[in-house]
Amino acid sequence: YEGSAEGDYSRFRHSDPSHGRLPCLLCHRREDNSTRLTFPGKAGHTPCVGCHAPQMQDPTSNICTICHANAQRGAMK
Prior knowledge:
Shape: globular
Number of helices: 2
Strand content: 5-15%
Low-confidence stretches: 1-5
Distance between the termini: 23 Å
Largest sheet: 2 strands, antiparallel
């Protein structure tokens, strides 16, 4: 990620080389026939936690704000 040495985890970047190698359907999938996409974190935050476990375990990390309006309460955007 661009930015500080720790990285900018405030938003997901499809242009990141590591993210670019992931299959789209890892995150962009539908559980039913609705038009709303499923958030990838329903199953223990897979696939994000595979690479971002340290950030996801840190309650002060911005990574939670990618999907959550309030990470402490679990409220989704």
